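Human: I would love a firmer grasp of how sequence relates to backbone shape in proteins. Could you go through the record with me and say what the backbone is doing? Here is the record:
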Amino acid sequence: MQTTEKIAIFLATYNPNLGYFQSQIQSIKNQTYQNYICHIVDDCSQMKYQIAIQKIIAEDTRFTCHFHDQNFNHYYNLKFLFDIHKLKNFLFL
């Protein structure tokens, strides 16, 4: 029996390779389980990457971006994700 609960997907980025990032987003979209929200938290990438990330996810409301204005590094990026989402089911990518 498949669950119908919403899950949260957490995706951290920093100046990502945009080809790989787009493939990763498409892979998430192609999953058979569709009841999810994907939080992308960017650790102060250069503006050109932030703009590209927004364009890649623009038409799918299940994806949301959070852009830091300074680099917080790994630990605080993950803490931020936990703080914004309280679902009991989550996945880090």
User: Anything to note?
Assistant: The chain has a mean pLDDT of 87. The helical segments are 18-29, 47-57, 73-84. DSSP finds three helices and four strands in the chain.
